[in-house]
């Protein structure tokens, strides 16, 4: 999806690879679900690119749900290709209004919490969500909360 942010570093599980070597798992548990697809993190030293086996320089968050997130470790070249693919792959139907758009963005319903499902929504629905949050904030501020 498009317009996804950048986040900080978190831990990763260490697992044994096919030949007994240690590698970083590509799926994290539910502790790592507050960020959105497209978030980028630091890659552990010595990690190879998932696509070409050059040294990885970017860890990019992929599919994310309340059970965890998938991560791709990519070198500079493969990371650039992935960013371009994500920019071009923004079309689809909005999860909330069901209308087709060429510019979906990832978000969460804040009433469902920071670990809730990731929704892919159109600009209109995203803006509507932001307006509702601003109105709620103004309500609480004006009532002394």
Question: How are the elements arranged and paired?
Answer:
Layout: E1 14-16, E2 22-24, E3 40-41, E4 58-65, E5 68-74, H1 76-88, E6 92-93, E7 100-101, E8 105-107, E9 119-121, H2 123-142
Antiparallel strand pairs: 1-2, 3-4, 4-5, 6-7, 8-9
List the total number of helices. 2
Order of helices and strands: EEEEEHEEEEH
Q: Work out the number of β strands.
A: 9
Reading side by side through the largest sheet, how are the strands ordered? 3-4-5
Q: How many strands, which pairing sense, and closed or not: the largest β-sheet?
A: 3 strands, antiparallel
Task: Explain this structure.
The protein has 145 residues and is of the alpha+beta class. It contains two helices and nine strands, in the order E-E-E-E-E-H-E-E-E-E-H. It has two domains: 1-89, no CATH class; 90-145, no CATH class. Helix content is 23%, strand content 23%. The chain starts with 13 loop residues before the first strand and ends with a helix.
Short synopsis of the structure:
This protein has 145 residues and is α+β, with helices and mostly antiparallel strands. The chain is built from two helices and nine strands.
